[in-house]
Model the fold of this input.
Amino acid sequence: MIKPTQPPARRLGRPARPQRADSRDAMLDVATALFASQGVAATTIAHIARRTEVTPAMVHYYFKNREQLIDVVVTERLAPVIAFVWAPAALPRADASSATPPDPRTVVAQVVTRIVQCAAERPWLAPLWMREVVNEGGQLREKVFRYLPVDHLHAFAAMIATGQRSGTVNPGIEPRLVFLSILGMTLLPMATSALWRRIWAEGATALDTDAIAAHAVAMLSGGLFPPASSRRRPAARRTPQRPGP
Done:
């Protein structure tokens, strides 16, 4: 009788390479979702392993330690979102001159649309940003700060200030706070959707991501940009009077 061939015993130590090529991405997805739902501090390697249905040793196979995993979440999940949001704005550097300055209305609408699109495609984005970046003491704040497009943020504020000087932007607006206002009107409603959906659950038009984006653009347009009739017009040139006879 021929005995069935037994697979060779695996040596102890490093776990076997997973069969699925996307195992690493799956671990990152789980880690990111857990960071958003329960916080970075409350999430351990064991939690991530259990949710991904692997062993903690398998998580360590891809990520040397928990700190490296956090760094990878920032570089591979959050940093690309930041780059995507600012990619279409096409703002010049703050120290650069441009013959045709960007249109504030267009840029604001582009930034709002991109933020809402990213948050809609990544349900973890809004709660993670609010919990770990916005909050004082958030564990991702300093790590994310390294990826913020400081030049773009300065140019964005300079664009708003230029619009104020030309009379197309409300003079009472603080240019440095406009982008923070955009974040507040987009990510905050998306991060708290479970709460306000309970309030407006019955007899109300769906408050979906399109509604959030449209609301943010309308609020910003109404507050940022004064009505056409009240915009400052250049002073009319006075015709010098001829001296009398």
Remarks:
- Residues 1-16, 233-245 have pLDDT under 50 and may be disordered.
- The longest helix spans residues 66-86.
- The radius of gyration is 26 Å.
- The domain at 74-228 is CATH 1.10.357.10 (Tetracycline Repressor; domain 2).
